Amino acid sequence: MIDVVHLTKRFGDRTVLDDLTLHFDNGEVASVVGPSGGGKSTFLRCLNGLETFDLGSVQIGPDKLEAGGLSHAAIARIRQRVGFVFQQWHLFAHQTALENVIEAPIHVKKVARATAIEKAKALLAKVEMSHREHAYPRELSGGEQQRVAIARALAMEPDALLMDEPTSALDPSRVGDLVALLGRLAKEGLTLVIVTHDYDFARAVCTRSVALESGKVVRDGKPSDVLAETPL
Amino acid sequence: MKRSAATCALALGSIVIGLLAVGSSSCSSEPSGGTLDRIRASGKLRWGGDMQGGEPYVSEDPNRPGKLVGFEVDLAEAIAREMGVRAEFVQNDWSNLVPSLERGTFDIAMNGLEVTKARVGRVLFTRPYYIFQMRLMARHGDARVRPSLRSLRGLRVGTLANSQSWEALQDTGAEVLPYEGVEEPYIDLEVSRTDAVLLDHIIADRYGVPHTKLRVVGDLGEGYYSIAVRRGDDGLRTALDRALEAISKRGALRRILRKHGIDDAAQARLATWSDTDTTRMISERAAAQRAAGGTQADVKKPFTWHHFMLFLQGALVTLVVSTAAMALAIPLGILLALARLYLPRTPFAWIAGAYVEVFRGTPVLLQLYLLYYGLPGLWEGLKLDAWTAAIVGLGLNYAAYEAEIYRGGILAVPKGQLEAAWSLGMSTPLAVRRVILPQAFRIALPGVTNDYIALLKDSSLVSVITVVELTKRMTITAVDVRSWLVPGLLCALLYFSMSYPLSILARKLEARLHGESR
Ligand SMILES: Nc1ncnc2c1ncn2[C@@H]1O[C@H](COP(=O)(O)OP(=O)(O)OP(=O)(O)O)[C@@H](O)[C@H]1O
Ligand SMILES: [Mg+2]
Fold first, then answer.
1. In total, how many domains does chain B have?
2. What ipTM was reported for this prediction?
3. Which residues surround ligand 2, an ion (CB under 5 A)?
4. Which amino acids bring their CB within 6 angstroms of ligand 1?
5. Cα diameter, chain A
6. How far apart are CA B165 and CA B506, in angstroms?
7. Does B173 reside within a domain?
8. What helix, strand, coil percent values describe chain B, rounded to 5?
C-alpha cells in the first residue's frame, strides 16, 4: 500500500530524513515514535506530498512521488487516496462542520451536493458529531474538531489515514473514545499511520511501531518490543 | 447606540463651528480707507492672481523659472509705480480669488476677473483695463453651432466656472460644463466630448485657435476685466482708478497690451473711458442681477429648494461614481494581490508590484488628468467620456490600495488552511478560491469599508474632468448664493450621511471579526 524507498529529506544542510526505506501493508495500523525532532512529522508530510524530498521515492498504489519533480496529477491522486489529520486539525474556519466535510467531495471529486451531504451526515454520525454539524470550528472543543477533521478526511474515501499526534490536544479522558473510533476504522480495513508520543495509546491501537531517530529507522516491530526499547 | 449618537452630534457640532468660523471670517472686511493707508505705509501693493491661468495673464516665465510674466504683471507694476509703491504677487486659486480677497489674503484681485453680475454685488470694481469679447468656438463642419446663444439650446457647451460666459450660458437651454483650466475645454471640444466652447477671446485665440479641428463661430457680446477690491475700500478703488486712468491716457496701457499681443481696436475706448462709464458698466450688471431675482445688487440669492435638489443630485453622482469605482477596484485589487502572492518571480508579480507602487505613488488627480486629457492625444480611440474616465480613474487608483489590503488579508490566513486544502486533493487555485479568499475577505472587510469612505470623499477630484459631483455643486452654489455657510453645511451633512452608515458597518464587521478570532 505505502512503499517508501531510500527517502532522504534535507532542510538546508541538515538531513532530517536519512535514506528511509519502509513498507506499510494494506490495513496495517502503525505508530511512528521517537524523540522530538527525529523527523516524524516530516516523514508523514512526505507521504502526502506536502513536503518535497531530495532522494528516493514514495509509492502509493499505482502512483509514485519522486525526489525533485512531483507531478501535480500524481500528487492530487495520492492525496485523495491518503487522508491527513493535522495535529492542529486546520478545519476551514469559515465553514460549519458539515460544510467542512462536503467541501472536497463536491469540489475535487465532483460529487453531487445532495449525495455529498448524505454521505457527510453518515460520517459525522460515525465520529459521533451529528449533533454539532452546524457548528463552526471556533465553537467546537479540540476533541470535537479532531473528529470533524477525521470525518473530513474520510469523506474522500481514502485507503489510508495519516495522523500527527492525535492525542496531544486531547483531554486524557477522551483518548478512550479516539481509540474506539480508530479501532472501528481499522476493522473496516483502513490503513493507519499515526505519529505519537503516547505509548499507551499506541499499544491500544497499533499492530506495529516504527521508531525514528535522527531521520533513521532505529527499531521496527511489535509495539510491545519497540516501545519498551524507545525512551519517551 | 447612545455613544454613537453622541459621537455623531459631536462631529456635526464641530463641522458647524468650523463653518461658522469660515463664514464669519469671509464676511468680515477691513474698515474703509484702511487698506489704502496700509499699502502706502508698507509700500507694497499685494495683488492676487493665479499663475495657472496661463499666458498672457500671469504665468511663470518658461525661460526663467520663478519669474512671472504676463500683461497683468506689467500692469500691476505700472499701477504700483503710479501709486509710488511696489507690486507684490500673491498666488491664489483663480476660482477662490474673490473669497480670498474678502478674507484679506491680498489687497486687490487682478487676473482676468470679469465684471459679472455675481461679482458686482460682492466686491468693488475699478474702471476696466481690458475689453474682451465672449468668443464662441466649435468644430469645423458642425453646422448646429451658430453665432447666437439660442443656437446652443440642447448642446454641450464648455466654459470656465463662474465666468461671464458661464453666466451668459445660464437659462439658454445648453448643458453647461464647468472647467477649471483654459486648455481642457478645447481638448474636450476637439474630441467631441462637447459641442462648443464659449470663453473670453484672449483665451479662445491663445488656447482654442491652435486646434486645427476648431473654428471661431463668432462673438456673443463684450465684457470687461477690472481690478476687484474689498467692499468698503472706496478710497483704494479711487486711487486705482486714477492710476489706471493715467496709464491709459498716456498710452502705456496699450503698449503693454501690444507687447503681449492682445491689443485691438476696441481697446481705444479705454483711453477715453470716464467714471460715468464705470458707473454705467456696474449698474447695468446690477440691473441684470436684479432682473435675475435680486431686489438690490448686493442682496444674496436665497438658498432654494431648487439648490437643495441639485445637491441631492450631486450626492447621487458622488455615490454612483464612488460605488462604481469601488466595484472596479475590488476585483482588480484581488487579481493584483493574487499575482503578487501566488505567482512570485514571474512577470505577473512584477507587473502587479509595479502597478501598486506607481498608482499609490502618484497623485490620483494626475492620473485622472492623464486618463481624460492625455490618452486621447495618444490615440483617438482612447477617448473616454467624463463619467467613464472618472470611474475608471478612481477605480484604477483604488485597486492599488485594495490589492495591498487583500494581500494583507491573505497573508493573515493561517498557513495550515492551505495545507489542509491541499491534503484533501485541492489544487492551489481551488484552495485559494474556496478556502483562502473567503477568509481573507473577512479580514480585509473593515479596511475595504474604510477605503470606500475615503473614496466617497476623494471622488470630489473628478470635478477636474467636468463631472459635477457634490463638492463641485457646493462651490458653484456658494458663488451663486454668495455664501459658503449653508451650501457648506449641507454638503458636509450629505457626505456625512453617506459615510457614517458605512463607518458603523465597518465597526460592526470589526467587532464580529474580533469575536471570530479566538
Ligand atoms: N520547514 C522547516 N524548515 C527547516 N527545518 C525544519 C522544517 N520543518 C522541520 N524542520 C526540522 O526538521 C527536524 C525534524 O522535524 P519534525 O517536525 O519532523 O520532527 P518531529 O519528529 O515531528 O518532532 P516532534 O516530536 O517535536 O513533533 C527538526 O529538527 C526541525 O527543526
Ligand atoms: Mg512532529
1. 3
2. 0.95
3. A 41
4. A 11, 16, 36-42
5. 51
6. 45
7. yes
8. 65, 15, 25
**CB-based contacts of B334, cutoff 8 Å, min separation 6:** B402, B403, B406, B437
- Give residue B44's domain range: 29-127+226-291
The CA distance from A50 to the nearest CA of chain B, in Å, is 7
Count how many pairs of residues, chain A against chain B, have C-beta atoms within 8 Å: 65
Model pLDDT for residues B468-514, shown as the tens digit of each residue: 889 888 887 877 776 788 889 999 999 999 999 988 888 887 777 66
Q: Judge contact between B461 and B368, C-beta under 8 A.
A: yes
Atom of ligand 1 nearest to the CA of A87: 27
pLDDT at B11: 46
Q: Are residues B414 and B506 in the same domain?
A: yes
Q: Say if the Cβ atoms of B438 and A94 lie within 8 Å.
A: yes
In this complex, which of B420, B426, B442 lies closest to A107 when CB atoms are compared? B426
Q: What is the pLDDT of residues B6-36, one digit of tens each?
A: 444 444 444 444 444 444 444 444 444 588 9
Q: State chain B's mean pLDDT as an integer.
A: 87
B417 and B368 together in one domain: yes
**What is the rounded (10 degree) CA torsion for A144, A149, A151, A152?**
140
Contact B423 A94 (CB under 8 A): no
Distance from CA of B348 to the nearest CA of A (A): 22
Both B362 and B459 in a single domain?
A: yes
Amino acid residing at B36: L
Nearest-ligand number for the alpha carbon of A18: 1
Are A93 and B417 a contacting pair at CB < 8 A? yes
**What value does the mean pLDDT take over residues A142-148?**
93
Q: B352-380 burial by CB neighbour count: b if 16+ within 10 A, else e?
A: beebbeebeeeebeebbbebbbebbeeee
Chain A residue with the nearest C-alpha to that of B513: A94
Give B421-441 as a DSSP string: HHHTT--HHHHIIIIIHHHHH
Distance between CA B281 and CA B275 in Å, rounded? Answer: 10
Provide, as residue numbers in chain B, all residues whose Cβ is less than 8 Å from the Cβ of A108: 424-426, 430
Do B424 and B377 lie in one domain? The reply is yes
Query: Which pairing describes strands A160-164 and A82-85: parallel, antiparallel, or unpaired?
Result: parallel
Overall number of domains in chain A: 1
B185 and B275 assigned to the same domain: no
| A2: β partners | A24, A60
Among partner residues B416, B430, B518, which is closest to A90 by beta-carbon distance?
B416
Quick one: cell of B95? 476660482
For chain A, the distance separating the N- and C-terminal CA atoms, rounded to the nearest angstrom, is 29
Q: Percent of chain A at pLDDT above 90?
A: 82
User: How many CA atoms lie within 13 Å of A8's alpha carbon, on the beta-carbon side?
Assistant: 10
Domain range spanning residue A176? 2-228
CATH number of the domain to which A41 belongs: 3.40.50.300
Cβ distance A77 to A58 under 8 Å?
A: no
Q: Which of A68-77, A154-163, B156-165 has the highest mean pLDDT?
A: A154-163
Residues of A in contact with B409 (CB under 8 A): none
Q: What single-letter DSSP state applies at residue B169?
A: H
Task: Please indicate, yes or no, whether residues B403 and B467 belong to a single structural domain of this protein.
Answer: yes
* pTM of the entire predicted model: 0.74
pLDDT band at A134 (very low <50, low <70, confident <90, very high): very high
Instruction: For residues B176 and B42, state if they share a domain.
Output: no
Query: Which of B422, B439, B518 lies at the smallest CB-CB distance from A138?
Result: B518
Helices (H), B175-293: 184-190, 201-203, 234-249, 252-259, 275-291
Joined grid coordinates for residue B107: 489687497
Same domain? For B245 and B326 the reply is no
State how far the Cα of B164 lies from the Cα of B115, in Å rounded to an integer. 7
pLDDT greater than 60 at residue B298: no
The three cell numbers of residue A106 are 463536491
CB–CB contact A153 B438 (8 Å): no
